[in-house]
Amino acid sequence: QVQLQESGPGLVKPPQTLSLTCSVSGGTISSGSYYWSWIRQPAGKGLEWIGRIYTSGTTTYNPSLKSRVTISVDTSKNQFSLRLSSVTAADTAVYYCARDRLWFGPDIWGQGTMVTVSS
Amino acid sequence: QSVLTQPPSASGTPGQRVTISCSGSSSNIGSKTVSWYQQLPGTAPKLLISTNNQRPSGVPDRFSGSKSGTSASLAISGLQSEDEADYYCAAWDDSLNGPVFGGGTKVTVL
């Protein structure tokens, strides 16, 4: 059974870069017709899709964040990563990585990691 | 402001049937399938309904989904205390080229 686990700093100073990694276990990240996404959720609020990557390296980003987001994949480590630059307090949220099915949305989610942006 | 519109709350007594609505547009629900997620307090969302009305393995048949036009709904029959959670609808959006979500509905078991 595929499982995802986020890791990275829980506190980031503005305007530094937020960096998170998602480790995939129980399956190979490069197998199947899946994409790999990042989604975030500010406290008490709804879910916002950040972007996705395919194992070929092809990426698609939410236009609202596109200028600050980079998602990359390391198939040798079965991991994919998120970098969000020039962070502000508005980027404080729980960040989830997820397995994504094109046109159908996420089906498996990581447990999430809380990231606070504060000086 | 979420792209998909859900009521912020819903409630019922144990055993009752509760329905949650989700409204979208032609660029998402109107042309793509709908998923529903259950988020228990302090946990990650869990896929509850896929492709409008399909339950993944392990999801009780008390949960059912439907879609008509640019709207969808989730029904919980025989409401149980462990169903207290936030529920989110989602659909692929052609304009975003990614999934959009509702604002979530908090279900309370009275």
Can you tell me the overall shape of chain B? Answer: globular
Residues in helix, % of chain A: under 10%
**Which structural class matches the secondary elements of chain A?**
mainly beta
First-to-last CA distance of chain B: 28 Å
Number of helices of chain A: 0
Question: Mean pLDDT of chain B, rounded to whole units?
Answer: 96
Beta strand % of chain A: over 45%
- The rounded Rg of chain A comes to 13 Å
What is the radius of gyration of chain B? 13 Å
Largest interface: A-B, 24 and 25 residues
Total DSSP E strands of chain A: 11
Q: The biggest beta sheet of chain A, please?
A: 7 strands, mixed
The shape of chain A is: globular
N to C succession of SSEs of chain B: EEEEEEEEE
Number of helices of chain B: 0
Record field, number of beta strands of chain B: 9
Describe it for me?
The complex is a heterodimer of chains A (119) and B (110). Chain A is mainly β and 119 residues long. The model of chain A has no long low-confidence stretch (mean pLDDT 95). Chain B is mainly β. Chain B contains no helices and nine strands. In chain B, a hairpin with a 6-residue loop joins strand 3 and strand 4. Chain B is globular, with a radius of gyration of 13 Å. Classes of the chains: A mainly beta (119), B mainly beta (110). At the A-B interface, strand 5 and strand 10 of A face strand 7 and strand 8 of B.
Question: What structural keywords apply?
Answer:
heterodimer; A: 119 residues; mainly beta; 7-stranded mixed beta sheet; 4-stranded antiparallel beta sheet; 11 strands; B: 110 residues; 6-stranded mixed beta sheet; 3-stranded antiparallel beta sheet; 45% strand; globular
